[in-house]
Design goal:
elongated, 14 strands, TIM Barrel, two-stranded parallel sheet, 12 helices, DNA polymerase, domain 1, alpha/beta, single chain, 2 domains
Length: 342
């Protein structure tokens, strides 16, 4: 039996086309979109203002497309990590981070990652699959306390711009009037800088952008980030200078600090030269040790000196608090490489 098509992940236009093919009343499309995206139903049977017969017709070919997490782990700091199974039988991890009156979801876009950064467990896992729009949105809709989510960051497993078509459709659906009507300011895309799709993202959206930088010296960045060969950080930054960062959209740079590798003031100086006159903020991140890497975290003292130097040079710079490390939910620690078929 063929797998049913999922309503979650379909635009109103696509739902309308499907409704017409099934010879259901055209207004049913708006009802379906409202049930799926606003009322957040899990089954077609819950769509009570659609007749029983029409629900039966719809169920023959479609389902909502929601799936609950297979496992939930909770950190001592309240961070939660969820395991989801994809339609193809693979697995992804998703993280939610509570902070005061905010709940941020760190969503995945791929099973594994092609980028092979030396400090990232997802990259060391290798690439298995792109997530569908349904699988991306399911994370937002199916994590615990999903209605409380205030912000979405594409910082989970995978490189979002390597699956840009499905990522774009997902964030655009979250912003539509018939869905959750989110502001683009609630969404941040984090990337190592795939230039062609980065330009598309910049031209086609107003969402926030975070660039994974981690070393301002090209040869040394290349040693830990193979992307530096095909998309040098300097060329990405030059492209970013063509855009206005002074109003609604925020530009930030992620900088993981490694002991004795990129954490001296020499690197801070090079970083200020690289980002000179660019309206941005710099997030300093303590490295979370992973089994496959010889890198070690910078000391708190060095991180503070680094931050204070950047601040003195006029940059907004913060040391990001580490969250969820005890459940392997912190930055760079997501991986489903060891999870077999359940």
């Amino acid at each position: 039996m063929d797998q049913k098509q999922h309503l979650l992940g379909m635009t109103l236009a696509e739902i309308t086309e499907s409704v017409q093919e099934l010879k259901l009343p055209k207004f049913t499309a708006g009802q379906i979109a409202d049930w799926v995206y606003v009322k957040r139903v899990k089954t077609i049977d819950e769509m009570s203002n659609i007749s029983l017969r029409n629900r039966e017709i719809l169920t023959e070919m479609y389902d909502v497309g929601r799936s609950e997490p297979l496992d939930v782990k909770t950190s001592t700091d309240g961070t939660m990590k969820m395991l989801f199974r994809t339609d193809s039988g693979k697995f992804i991890e998703t993280v939610t981070i509570p902070e005061f009156d905010r709940l941020t979801i760190c969503a995945s876009s791929q099973v594994g990652c092609r980028m092979n950064c030396d400090f990232c467990m997802t990259g060391k896992q290798g690439f298995s699959d792109n997530l569908t729009t349904t699988e991306i949105l399911n994370q937002v809709y199916s994590v615990p306390d999903s209605r409380a989510i205030s912000n979405l960051v594409f910082m989970g497993m995978g490189e979002p711009l390597d699956n840009y078509k499905n990522v774009k459709k997902a964030y655009e659906l979250l912003m539509t009037d018939y869905s959750l009507a989110w502001s683009p300011r609630r969404i941040t895309l984090s990337t190592i800088g795939l230039k062609s799709n980065l330009k598309r993202f910049l031209d086609e959206s107003k969402c926030h952008l975070a660039i994974s930088l981690h070393n301002p010296i090209p040869e040394q960045r290349l040693a830990i980030m193979p992307i530096e060969k095909s998309a040098p950080a300097a060329s990405v930054i030059e492209m970013l200078r063509d855009y206005d960062w002074s109003h609604q959209r925020r530009l930030s740079f992620e900088y993981i600090m490694f002991d004795g590798v990129n954490d001296s003031l020499l690197y801070a100086r090079e970083l200020t030269k690289l980002l000179a006159n660019l309206d941005c903020r710099i997030n300093l991140i303590r490295f979370h040790v992973i089994p496959t890497s010889k890198l070690r975290p910078s000391t708190e003292e060095n991180m503070i000196k680094f931050r204070d130097f950047l601040t003195a040079k006029g940059f907004i710079s913060t040391i990001r608090a580490s969250r969820g490390e005890d459940i392997f939910a912190a930055c760079g620690m997501l991986s489903t490489a060891k999870i077999g078929e359940l």
